[in-house]
What we know:
single chain; mainly alpha; 5 helices; 83% helix; DoxX family protein; transmembrane; DoxX
Amino acid sequence: MKKITIFYWVLTSLICFMMTGSAIPNIMSDAMSVQGMHVELGYPKYFIPFIGWAKLLGVIALLLPIVPPRLKEWAYAGLAFDLTGALFSIASIGKPDWPFLFIPLALLAGSYFLYHKRRAMKQDAVSMSKRQLAVSAA
């Protein structure tokens, strides 16, 4: 359980760091974000801060331990949609750096897999302790 938790937090921290690093310039609509998303990819300018806030909210949902599981699932899905859309958008304009987007996608997939593995192990531990309490009470 401890190894899984450590790997989960390493992968989750890395993907959250990367997504925050791309969300903040989007939120601020800095020149590089406008150049990349509006000029090169053709997205409207109002979309840039919107996608930045969406990424930042997804990161917060992944990092907070008190977030309900359904909301975490939506956060994982939203970040996956963002990364997949970025991969497709960048590849379709012919930029050569699109393969690098597989790195954050792999980190996100690993974090998602370990999130479910951790959650299942916690539920198993809780059900086992409930059974032990029931046996000791009888």
